Amino acid sequence: MGVMQIDQEAPVLHCDEVDSTNTHLARIVLGEGSTAPSGIALWASRQNKGRGRDGRAWLSSDEALTFSLMVEASESELEWLTALAGLALLRTILAAGLDATASGEDALSLKWPNDLLINGRKAAGILCEHLDTSVDTHRVIVGIGLNIGALPLEVRDFAASFDTSMSSEERELFIRELRINLQRLFTLPGAPESWREEYSSYMRIFGTQCPLHLPGGIRFTATPISIDEHAHLICRSTEGEILTVTTGEISPTPLVEGHLS
User: Of 106, 144, 171, 218, whose CB has the highest number of CB atoms within 10 Å?
Assistant: First the structure.
């Protein structure tokens, strides 16, 4: 297993407005003559074409923190990247004290493969997009949208937000701390078992029957029971069959078009 190296001195760029932080950072990284280091990040005060998985739109207020960073990962690290980005985000939220605005014991949780929830409602989403591959590494853009402050009217029925505000300086510091946490996770002793244990500890949905949505429009009901060493979801079907889900999503509440899932 390779060990991801993130340049903690890489720049954290800011734009007043972009179409999508993932798209804009990809342009910079792939630009002619670019020597962008692993860890380069970009946040925007406003996204006008934010997007999520499967081409769905990401709707967020101007108070939200939307940012992306580019990392270089080995093949074995790549399969865990989305999950570890979620763990790094959760660690950073806890360290920043943002969890104090989430009411209830165990209010924060992770939903495989790419969401962070407050009391079962979506508060953040992660979108990893592959850029290119060299001899032994993959360059990937990791996009994160974190709901802060007021929510757009369209998503208030199913989303959640951290009841706080963040200055520009606090936003940059948050991104830098997340980079540190991501690096720490990739160098955590005992991986991937240590990753699996920590990620599983925040999966409150284990043992709960819920809809699963797979590529190609396949939908069925199953009970998530664990995460395996490849960050795949292990489920039990309603007939008792044990299934390994490599790609797709859990939907404890109906998917709503127009929001990252």
Answer: 144
